Each structure stands twice: as C-alpha cells, then as structure tokens.
Amino acid sequence: MAEEVIILKDLKLVPDKYYDYSQTLRNSKTPIVIDNGSFTCKAGWATSSVPNLIFKNILARPRKERGKKDGETLIGNDIANIEAVRFQLKSQFDRNVITQFNVQEQIFDYTFSHLGIDSNVMSELLFECYHVPGICYGIDGLFSYQHNGHNGKTGLVVNCGHHTTHIIPVINGTPDLINSRRIDVGGYHITYYLHKLLQLKYPAHYNAITPSRAEELLYEHGFLAVHYTDALKQWSDPEYYDHNVKRIQLPYSMAVLLTPDQQRDKRREMAKKLVEMNARKRDEKLAEDEEQLHQLLMIREMIEDGEPIEEVREVLRSHGLKNEKDLRKLITDLQTRIDRAKSKIAAASLSASNVDEHVTEEPKLRLFKNKIQLPKEESISKTWLKDIYKKRQDIIDKKTVRKQRRQDMAKRGTAASLERMRLISQLARKDKRDDDFGSRDEDWDVYKVINKEGGDTDSEEEQEKISELEEVLRFYDPTFVSSNNNEEQNPKEAHQLHFGIERMRCTEVLFQPSIIGCGQGGITDTIEFILKKYNDQTANDIAENVFLTGGPTKLPDFKQRVYRELREMRPLESNINVKLSDSPFLDAWSGAREFANKQDFHKYLLTPEMYAEMGGDYFIENSCSNMYCPLPEAVQEPEGLSEQNLEI
Question: Please, how many CA atoms are within 13 Å of residue 329, restricted to the half-sphere of its CB?
Fold first, then answer.
C-alpha cells in the first residue's frame, strides 16, 4: 500500500465584501456585535445568524519606497499574501490587552466601512471618533458559556485564546472574577513552537516552512496526547511511527529534461548571446577610446596653435597628464588600441556565421573510471541499451535489499533479528575463563553470519557505477529519467516533511508551558489551584460542569486530556463532566448576539452622557462583563507645599 502524501492547501485570503447599511437597520437601531479577538475579529449585525465579517485582526503597512507615496494599509483578508509582508504586520494587542489604539482605530474603520456605516462620522474612537449611541462590553468566554445553555449554572469556563488562556469559575451564573486566572499561553505559542521545531528539523527547507503553513499543519493534523509520557513511548516504536506519521509535501519545481535537439538550440542561443554581449562591450570601449582620442588631439592642436602655456597646463592636468611628452605617448597608445579593436570587430563579424557550426557539434561522452563497453556502431541496438538498464537496476536492487535488512534489524521479531540474537546468546553462554573466541579462522565465520544481515553499507564504488551508467543512458537514450532515490534526482521526496511526534509535542505547551520557558502552570494545574479556593461541595459542583471554548480547544482529544487530568486530581468517585463548546470559534460572537437581542439590553448600554460624566474607564456591569473598578483619583498636592518643605 502506497504511503499517503498530504499536499499543503496554502489557502489564500478572500477580501471581505462591503455590506449595505439598509434603512431597516437604521430605523430598528440594530446593535453591531464585535468579537474583537487577538487572532480574528468577528463582526456583524445582531440580526444576522453568523458574523458578517471574519478576518485576522492585523494590518500591514508596506515599506515606503524612495520617491513614492506611502503604500496602502492592508487589513485582515485584504492581505493576499501574509508571508510576503510578515515583518510589516502590526497588531493592536500586547498579549490580549489593547495597547496600540491607532491600530485599533484602523481596524474599526475597516469593520464599520465594510458594514456600510458612513465614513463621514469617523473622527476619533467610538464615542469621540464614531459617535455611537451606546456601548456594552463583555467577556467572550462568558458569552460562549451562556450561548451553550449554561446560563445560571455553576461551572468553570476554560477560554483558550490566541495569546492567553483564561479560567473563570462561575457560581450560580455569576462569574467569580476574583478567583479567575490567566495563563500567558495560547494558540499563537503552539504555532510558534511548531514553526521553530520544523525549521530546526528541516534546515534545508527553512524558508519554505512558514508560520502560515505551521498554523495549517497544527489545526489540520495536530492533537492533544491524552497521556503524554505514554504517547512518547509509542512514538519511539518504528512501526507506530510509520503508521501515524503524516508526510507533508512542500511545493517544489521539477528540473526540465531537454532532448538533444533542445540542448543544441539552447547552446546555440547562449553562444549567440555571448557573442552579442562581447561585441557590445567592444563597441562601448571603442567609443570611449575614440572620444578620449578626439579630446587629446584637440589639446595637441592648442599646443601647435601657440595657446597660452598656463591654459595648456591646466587642460593637461584635467586629463591627468604632466607634460606634452605624456600627451604624445597617450595619443599613440590610444591609436594603437583603437586599430586593434577595429581589427577584432572585423574578425568577429566574419566568424559570427561560423558560430552555429561550432555550437551544433555533438557533446562527447566523458571517460569513466569504471570501464563501460561502449558501442562502436553509429546506431545503438536495443539489446545493448537493455543490458545497460539491467546493470543499473541490479545495483539499485542490491542497495534496496540492504536497506530493508537494516530496517529489519531495527525491529524486534524479524527473522534476521532473531537469528542474530540467537548467535549472540550462544556466544554469551561460553565459559568466560576459557574465552579464546577469535583465535581460530572459523570463529570469524560466526562474526560474518552475525554481521551480514545488517552490517553492509552502500559503497562509494556502487554509487559511482550507478552515476556512470546513468550518464551513458542519458547520452544514448533521451527518454531516460533517473529514479535513483537521492535528493538531487528525486526532488519530490526531498521536499517532504515527516510530521510525527511534533503533532502532539507542540500542543503540549498548553498543559506544560515550561516547554517554551514559561514559568506559569498549565491548564489543569491552574484548574486545581482554583478548585482549592472553594469548599468541597462548591468544588464538586464546579468540576461537574467544566466548559471548554476558544479556537485551540477544537484540537482532537483536548476534552479527553482535561477529563483525564481532572479525574486524577479529584477525589475518588467524584462526578466530573467536561463539555466542549458547540462551535469554539464562533460561539462567543453568537452569545454576544443573543445578549444584544434581549429586551432589557438597553439597561447595559453606556451612553455618551455617562461617558462624559464618569470618564473613559467606566462601563455598566452585566452577567458577562468584567468588574468595574474605578481608577484611583489623582492626589492633588496642597497649595503652598513644595519639595523644599518636605522632611524625610
């Protein structure tokens, strides 16, 4: 059965469409729901069943070229090739906190313009920039929790995002944000770690292994190991590895094999280009020499006409000459050089017609170290070619057999491996006091039997013989294509990645952040820490409803891994239930949409008047929001008090 080779999709982003801001939407005052994630931004009207816009929350500013205006800023799906502008990408987030508000403003511009909002209201952010009538804030993980039917229930939300993972306990429908914890590891770190692992494993394909391809491999073929240490032992078994490894085909270009006629045409074309290039250089040099000679002759005429000596000396110095003697010598040299160049040009034009004759000569077959009997007749017989093919195939078959033997020796239970161990065990049973093994010639026959199955290696002589036979076949048979398994002759296999243990090794950083140098605990370690803050009954209630949401949680066996580790940490016979979000990627937006469609939604809207009165940090709390903690007021220094009056 042939091994399956997976072709990378390399999906290109499709630009977002522009929607119409209909009169119905205007009159009904339909809320806009924005899930402003650090990986993707999902935005749409609250009346839509799915987000109208889903795009990567990044922008790219192309480098400014000298003499040109600034390039157009590209956002989200308008970036056709992310890898081409990888170093110009910008995000408004530092981990999961917005710090670059100028970038966020441009993201809002993109979002609102594609939703059809008139651009003439955009001057500053939200109230001051967009003059929105009201704002309501909420936590994405809690919106997803309510959307999946957990409203009013006790449970634990594990929200795995792009840069961070939040673990939020919920008591009777109210989030306990005091005991919530954040882990600074998310989908970005998995992708980054996988990217570096593959680049380290395949340095020859360093540039071909891009972050975008690492991301595709992660979400298409990555998984969580339920038992990481046990899985490591399984991957050390060659049979398990061969059965589970994914062979990924990188893009590559095949070398074009030319027929003898095509080779002759190519040589003729290259020869003509060289002749033309040399002729052009000679003409340019001849023109320069003639111009310089013309100037020197004019200087000589000045001398002969009796021009003032000071002017003549100044002109000579400008041409790097000291006196009239140097002038005469340089004129003679230039005239000689020009005559010689004209002679070469005339000779080259005469011989140009003979170029084709020299180019069309057949290439000669080089002499080989190994004596290969070449045919003397002009016509090559099929029998002779068939014999050359057979000799080459015999050597390749021998190499294949040896390779298979070495593989069998590495596996337990094969006939070769069992026979070798039988002989070794017999030798081990001999009395060590009278160990004279090796003193007799027949002892070395035993060594040969032990070593013959796995000790032979491919010799350089064999490889040279194959190369010489293939050279002969290429010369006499234009249809010959080498199939020898080496990187130069089989580029397809040379551009394949074996995606094996990395499939689970990269995802393990969510549960063991120390792998990438993070000093925080993993997901289940943090869950255990949080559960210890509650009494036994509350901790049991929380463990009975563990809810997973966020993009990385859709990786295979994520739910099983969390359940297994919770089962180990919780008391015997505890009831544990782990539920995965119906749509880890979209449920946060869907939950926010449902919240915006509630009858009492207006009670949670922050109005421009409230913003002006309470300040920019104020918001109205709701069942899915953070806690409002007012910023401390600045301490005003009493009048008349200065540093000079302070005593320490």
Answer: 7
Cα 589 to Cα 36: distance, rounded to the nearest angstrom: 9
Give the pLDDT confidence of 552-600 residue by residue, as tens digits. Answer: 999 999 999 999 999 999 998 899 999 999 999 999 999 999 999 999 9
* SS3 assignment, position 18: coil
**CA 426 to the chain's CA centroid:** 54
Q: What pLDDT, on a 0 to 100 scale, did the predictor assign at position 473?
A: 79
Cβ atoms of residues 249 and 6 within 8 Å: yes
**DSSP H helical segments within 410-440, as ranges?**
415-428
Burial of 254-292, coded b for 16+ CB within 10 Å and e otherwise, reads eeeeeeeeeebeeeeeeeeeeeeeeeeeeeeebeebeeb
Short-list 15, 10, 201, 252, CA closest to 110 = 15
Distance separating alpha carbons of residues 501 and 221, to the nearest angstrom? 11
Helix pair 324-351, 309-318: axis angle to 10 deg: 40
Is the pLDDT score of 119 beyond 50? Answer: no
- The owner of tokens 């799915």 is 50
Does position 434 have pLDDT exceeding 80, yes or no?
Answer: no
Residue pLDDT, tens place only, 351-402: 655 555 554 455 555 555 555 666 655 555 678 888 888 888 888 888 888 8
What is the per-residue DSSP string for 115-170?
TT--GGG-SSSHHHHH--S-B----HHHHHHHHTT-TT--EEEEEE-SS-EEEEEE
Distances (CA, A) of 635 to 236, 470, 640: 64, 87, 15
DSSP code of residue 508: G
Pairing state between β 546-549 and 5-7: unpaired
Contact 43, 53 (CB under 8 A): yes
| C-alpha torsion sign, points 413, 419, 422, 424 | negative
